Description:
Blueprint: E1 2-8, H1 9-12, H2 19-33, E2 37-43, E3 49-54, E4 57-62, H3 65-72, E5 78-83, H4 89-99, E6 104-109, H5 116-128, E7 135-137, H6 140-146, E8 153-155, E9 177-184, H7 191-201, E10 207-214, H8 220-231, E11 236-239, H9 247-258, E12 262-264, H10 278-285, E13 289-291, H11 298-302, H12 314-323, H13 327-343, H14 348-360
Parallel strand pairs: 1-2, 1-5, 2-4, 5-6, 6-7, 7-8, 9-10, 9-12, 10-11, 12-13
Antiparallel strand pairs: 3-4
Amino acid sequence: MKIAFLGLKQAFDYFQIGGTESLVRRLTTQVVQRGINVDYILYRDRENIEVSPMPGIALRYFKSLEDALSAIGGKYEHVVTIYLLPKDRLKYASFRRKNKKLTTFHFIYFSWPDSLIKRKVYFYEAGLFPYNGKLFCISKRQYEYIKKWVENAIYILPPVPENYFLGPQEKPRNERIRITFLGRIDPGKGINEVIEIFKALKDDNRFECCIYGIHIPEHKESLKIHNWLKSQKDIKYVEVDRQKYSPAVEEFARNVLKETDIFIQPYQKLSSTIDTPLLLLEAMASLCAVITKPFGNISDIYGESKFLISLENFVDATIQLLKNIKYQDLREEQERLYEQNSKIDFRAKTIANIFLNNLITK
């Protein structure tokens, strides 16, 4: 069996760092470990080329969607769709219809658009132009939204590798409480609130605060915040290159979370990330207390906790929580998270089994 993952290069290139990219990369790695070859079919690149980052995975880059679809034409048993430009979707729907006897086409829903109109378009498209395979949903609200009108919806959580998962005794005991932001330098990720909180804690010797930031040069606001962080001295700032994924980068992120006591990611809206944030799950696996807001299904995933803070007065409430925090509070949260992780198993191997079993089942 051969599987292709199809989409815009800018949406899920293997070498980019991000939630969508990590989810697909981890799924494909697990699939290859089961003896199944995987091709990334990526369009809108500067040239038609092919490279292989590891045995069993080929990255096939194409200039146009037409070139990409021509390469697919009957050569794959399954095609998993990630993201196409709106202007390309009608053409792709026609291609699926013509090739449905040769190939089973699937789709993964990653986001939850803020706009009701955009949300309806995003989810109803598969009703107007049906997929003959499965519609994978990575959050419960996505699944509940579309299962009312389709029968091929499947709920799966984003996968986290086994080596992220810690037991309470494996979690390091730091002299100072380590609070970490890791992710894109983006107002939608709550970076401005993080900066405000870290400024308020800068003279408190109990805390060690750090921002590990990915900035996108094309985004003016992101670049502005990045440049400010580089120029100031109050907050430790470590720049992470979005375009340079490698196993070493993965290991770096895993070690950062392992050494982190409190992970902070105060999303302004979940539309700025995948609808079940992968960093939330990675932090949970690493037994980090997570300070965030209960958007979407976050409270269902994370469980009941004082570290989930409402949107109103978030900054003040977080500062107050942190100033009163004790090491015992962190130990209790680690024990709770260990139990929570066992209830909602999101280990990569488990998720890949669910994915593959549903992929091949009619």
